[in-house]
Amino acid sequence: MTTAEHSPACPLPTGRSGSAGRPGLMPLRQARERFLTGRPLPDGVPDDIVAAWRRARFYGVRHDDVRNDGVWRDGVRRDGVRHDDLRHDGARAAGGPPRPAGAALLAAARPVLERIAPALGTGPSHLVLTDERLRVLWTAGTAPGHGRCADLSEQEVGHNSAALALRTRRRSEVHGPEHFLDLWQDVSAVSVPVLTPGTGRVLGTVTVATALCPGRGPHPGAALAEAAAAAVEAELPAPSRTADRVLLDAYARVAEERRRAVVAVDGRNRLVNESAARLLSPEALDALERRARAVLTAAATAAPDAANALDTGVSGPGTGPDSVAAAVAELDLGLPADAGCTAHGSLVRHQGHVIGVVAVLEPVDPGPVPAPAPRRPRISLVGGSVPWLHAVDRATELARSPEPLLLTGERGTGKTALARELLAGRAVTVLDAAEEPAGAIGHALGTWAATGAAPVPVPPSTSWSSASGGDGAPPGAGHTLLLRHAELLAQPDIAALNSLLDGHPGAPLLITYAPGATPGPCFQRLRDTLAARTVTVPALRERPEDIRELLAVLTPRPGAGQPPLTWALDTLRALERHPWPGNVTELAHLVRALAEQRRATGPVRRADLPDAVREGPATRPLSPMEQAERTAILEALRRHGGNKARAAASLGIARATLYRKLRGYRG
User: Are residues 413 and 511 part of one domain?
Assistant: First the structure.
C-alpha cells in the first residue's frame, strides 16, 4: 500500500435519528436545535460549545450536510475516487505525491494501528489517524450509513474531538449534540494528539469513535486512543538535524580555539563570538553580512565545491577543527579597507544545499601610525534614498546664501538636525516656539525688524540657547537665527515674523515647520513669502531603504565584552514596512527600548518588536468590522507575548484562522 496527499475517507458512526440521548445531553440536544433555528439559547449551555457552533456557522459548515472535495457519498468521492479503491491507508488518490510529514507519520503509525484495530470489536466503532491539518491518513472500523469524511477540520465539519485535541494539545472528548453535524448526533468520540519526540510539535491525532456513550463517565475508548498515540510516538524517528543546528555545529567547530574570531551567517541569523565582536564595528559586521549573502546567492546557483564546503555528511579523518580551519581559509569575503580586519570563510552545506557561511577574522596590522577612527556619521545626513538626497541637496544649495529658509516636514523627520548641519560653522541662536511664552519671540523679532540688527535681548522669561556652544548671551550682529516649531507660534509672533521679512527679506533666518491644522491667513502669508525657499524633508515611510543605515547610527555601541545589537532579516523587513508616524524619532525610541530591555543574545528577531511594528500596517482600507477584528487580534497577541496559538485560543478561533485574517489585513 502507498500513501497519498489526499486522504482516504473516514467513516464516522451514526446512530438512528431520534435514538435516546445520553443522560444529561438531552437539554444540550434541544439547545442545539434552538441554535440552528435562530432562537435564543437557554441558560446553562457551556460557553465553549456555543463558541464551537458559532465557529462552524462562521466557516459556512452546513449542519445537515458535509459536501466538499474530501467528502464521500455512496462510496464515491466528489473527485471520482471510490472508497473501495483506497482501502485503509489511502493507497491511491488524485492530487499528487504524498506530503512528507503525513507520509512519515503514516509510515510509523500504520503497523501500530493495524495491530490495535482488532481491539475495536465488532460494534459500530472507528479508529482514525489524521495529520496536523486534520486530513485523514488512515481509518479502520465499521459504521452504519454513509457519512464518511476525509477532513476533520472545523472549517469542513465543525466541532469534533480531533479538532479540539489538536487545539488544546491534550485528550479531548465530544459527545452527540456537542457536534455541529446532524450525522454525528449519536456519536461519541475521543481524540489524543500525536507529538513529535523531543520537540513536542503536534503531528496529528488518533481518534476512537463509537455509538453515543450511555453514561457520563470517560469515553470507553479513551485508554485505547491514548495507548495508540503513545505507541505511534514511540515508532516515530528521531528528528533530523535542522539547517540551523548544522550551521551552529559548523560555527562551534571552527570557534573551538579561544583566540579565533568567528562569524557565521545564513542570511537570517548571525553567530558572533566575543573575539569577533571586539574586532568588528556594526558597520563592518553589516558589510560582512552583505558580502556573505552575495556569496550564498552565487553558491546556490553554482556547482558544489567539495574543497570549500563544510558538508555535514563528511566524517572520519580530515574533518576535525584543523581541517575545517584549512577549508575556511579558502574563501575571501573582502571586508572594507577601514574594517580593521580581514575575513576568510567557507560555505556550509546540508543535504546538498548551501545554507550558510562561516568566516574567520584576522586583525590587520595598523602599522606604526594608527589610522584615526572613522567619524560616526551624523544622523541628519544618514541616508542614500532619492527623496532624502534630493531634500539635502536642495537645502544645501539654498543655505549657501544668507537668506530665510523654511524646512517643512512631519514631526520627527530630522528638520532640526538637518538645520544644524546646514548652519555648521556659523554663530547660531536657537528660538523654540514650544518653549517660549507667547509674545516673547515676537518681541525679539520686532526689535530686529525695527533696528535692522540681530535680535536684541528679550524679556527675562525668555531663554536663549546657542547651537554653536556659546555662553548663552543674547544674539548680536552676525548671528543666524534658527526658529523651531513655527507651527506653535502665537498670532502676534507670526505677525512680527511677517513684518521682519517684509523689511528685511534677506534676514539670516532658518525656520522649521511641521504642517498640521489648516494655517490661518497670517501664517499662510508667511508660507507664501518663503515658498521659493522651502524644502520638504521626507517622512521615514517615504524612504524605508534608509532604515538600515539609520539603525547603524541609532544603535548604542555595546559595552566591553558585549556583542553588538544586530537585526535579523525578517526584523529589518518589518521595520521597513512600518509607517512610522513618529518618523526617525519613533525609530530612535524603539531602538533604545530594545537595547535597554532585551536580555537575549543573537540578532533582534521579529518577535521582539512591538505588536504594531511586528504585524505591519493594513495594506488596504479596512471596514469597521475588520478594523475592530484587527485591533482585537493585536491586543490578544500583546497579552500573550506574541504567541499566536494562545492568542487564537483566547479569541475562540483556530490558529489557522488567525493567520488567515492577518494575511487578509495585509492584502
Answer: yes
Confidence tier at 384 by pLDDT (50, 70, 90) = confident
The answer to whether the beta carbons of residues 202 and 195 sit under 8 Å apart is: yes
pLDDT digits (tens, 9 = 90+) for 527-551: 888 888 999 999 998 888 999 889 8
Q: Where are the alpha helices (DSSP H) in 436-582?
A: 440-451, 491-503, 521-529, 547-554, 569-577
Total domains, the chain: 4
Q: What is the pTM of this model?
A: 0.40
DSSP track, 225-291 = HHHHHHHHHHHSPPPPPPHHHHHHHHHHHHTTSTT-EEEEE-SS-EEE-HHHHHH--HHHHHHHHHH
The per-residue pLDDT for 160 is: 93
In angstroms, rounded to a whole number, what is the distance separating the alpha carbons of residues 332 and 343? 6
Beta partners for residue 129, in sequence order: 138, 206
3-state secondary structure of 171: coil
Q: Is residue 20 part of a domain?
A: yes
**Residue-range definition of the domain harbouring residue 114:** 10-235
Sign of CA dihedral 99, 102, 108, 112: negative
Is 359:292 a contact under the CB 8 Å cutoff?
A: yes
**Same-domain check for residues 54 and 201:** yes
Question: By three-state DSSP, how is residue 493 classified?
Answer: helix
Nearest C-alpha neighbor of 604 from the set 551, 541, 662, 666: 551
Q: How many CA atoms lie within 13 A of 289 on its CB side?
A: 21
The length of the chain, given as a count of residues: 667
Domain presence at residue 65: yes
Write the CB contacts of 391 (distance below 8 Å, at least 6 apart in sequence): 418, 535, 536, 537, 538
Residues 217 and 178 placed together within one structural domain of the fold: yes
Query: Locate cell 524679556: which residue?
Result: 459
Q: Are residues 314 and 392 in the same domain?
A: no
Neighbour count for residue 540 (Cβ, 10 Å): 28
The model's pLDDT over 551-566, given as tens digits with 9 standing for 90+, comes to 888 888 776 667 778 8
Examine the fold and report which residue of 178, 206, 235 is the final residue of a domain before the chain moves on.
Answer: 235
Contacts of residue 601, defined as CB under 8 A and 6 or more positions apart, other chains included, come to 563
pLDDT over threshold 80, residue 73: no
- Start-to-end C-alpha separation, the chain: 43
Backbone φ and ψ of 509, nearest 5°: -140, 130
- 405-408 vs 428-432, strand pairing mode: unpaired
- Residue recorded with cell 577543527: 321
